[in-house]
Amino acid sequence: MTAHNNQIKDLKPIAKLSNLTQLACANNQINDLKPIAKLSNLTQLDCTNNQINDLKPIAKLSNLASFFCSDNQISDLKPIAKLFNLTIVSAILIKSAT
Questions:
Q1: Intra-chain end-to-end CA distance of the chain, in Å
Q2: Rounded-to-integer distance, Cα 39 and Cα 61, Å
Q3: d(CA 49, CA 37)
Q4: Which CATH class is domain 12-93?
């Protein structure tokens, strides 16, 4: 699912899309990833350039192979530390919004 540049603030409407494997929601106004915490089939997530500050909700997404979240307000990477050990991970991009 691609939803770039749409001024989206809330991901609740997609929370029940349990078969979703790809979510590209960059360049929006999203600040909460809790609605996608149970999307266990998610393999690709691009939430670049939003207002996200907490990565805890995606910590258990064990099928995540690509994760991009640069240009957000993230200060703690500990919640996703286990993702770095997954053998299926092909890309993780995290950089500051400075």
A1: 28
A2: 7
A3: 19
A4: alpha beta
